[in-house]
Amino acid sequence: MYSLSYRRASSVEEARRLFKEASDAAYLAGGHTLLPAMKQRLAAHDVLVDLGAIADMKGIGVSGDGLTIGGGVTHAEVAGSQEVKGAIPSLAALAGSIGDAQVRHRGTLGGSIANNDPAADYPAAALALAATIRTDGREIAADDFFTALYETALEEGEIVTGVSFRIPETAGYAKFRNPASRYPMAGVFVARHKDGTVRVAVTGAGNEGVFRWSEAEQALSGNFAAEALAGLSVDPDMMMGDIHGSPEYRANLVAVMARRALGSLGSAEAII
User: Fold this and answer.
1) For residue range 2-16, what is the model confidence (pLDDT) as tens digits?
2) Is there a contact between 6 and 81 (Cβ–Cβ < 8 Å)?
3) In 3-state terms, what secondary structure has residue 231?
4) Among 37, 46, 98, 263, which is 20 to 30 Å from 175 by CA?
5) Could you tell me which of 204, 30, 36, 203 has the C-alpha nearest to residue 103?
6) Range list of H helices, 1-81
7) Which CATH fold topology does 170-263 show?
8) SS3 250
């Protein structure tokens, strides 16, 4: 047994103060990455600062070409939001495909982005939708935010307060779930933006976590259709390999999921 204190913050400022006062604190959102790590003694903190009651981290809104979602908004709220369905249906579909009902009603957008679990869904959407991650002190482009497995550009104590996604002309998401854990073994988010730019992001498969598939982006820029990806594949050396699937298997999954994502363009239903 080890001692642990729980603190519930009512504002971002209070959360930062509680974090700084502790010798080894961690922020608690949904807890789906943090709590299992603590149970397995892979992480140990003396204070957990709960962000769930911070009103300023709630809310969903559309302004111009952007969709902004608070860091404390749950997956279920994203999935059920008419604003999200109207602006980016595939993002609502992605949120509705995460885990099970219990996970979706506890897990949050900010927690998923901040933890950067290699099998998380949202990082792929953030990259493909050219998102801006908003913290309590600055704004960070998604391309600069995700740095490695479980690592981001966040500084010690920094809080993800919201994410602004660029509303695309069209987008789609597809993933292949591990039949045991239900995490994606490969998930691909494809978006064509209003300026003609195409972005393709892959989660669940890469050695270094979420990444953009540049070859697919180039091919789809000329012909935004599944046949443009014929013959393309990612380098297996870039892929994870474990008991669930070899790097070659995951490389093939990425290509298949990319084609399926193109088949789901504009849909609020996930392809899994």
Assistant:
1) 688 999 999 999 999
2) no
3) coil
4) 37
5) 30
6) 12-21, 34-39, 75-80
7) Enolase-like; domain 1 (3.30.390)
8) helix
Task: Give the CATH class of 5-50.
Answer: alpha beta
Tokens of 178: 């591990």
Q: What is the pLDDT of residues 86-119, one digit of tens each?
A: 999 999 999 999 988 999 999 999 999 999 999 8
Distance CA 86, CA 62 (A): 10
Domain limits, the chain: 5-50, 55-166, 170-263
Cα dist from 260 to 163, 251, 267, 272, whole Å: 26, 15, 12, 9
Alpha carbon distances (Å) from 47 to 38, 107, 135, 270: 12, 20, 21, 37
Amino acid identity of residue 122, one-letter, is: Y
User: What is the fold of 55-166?
Assistant: 3.30.465
Q: What b/e sequence results for 71-94 when a residue is b if at least 16 CB atoms lie within 10 Å of its CB, and e otherwise?
A: bbbbbbbbbebebbbebbbbbbbb
pTM: 0.93
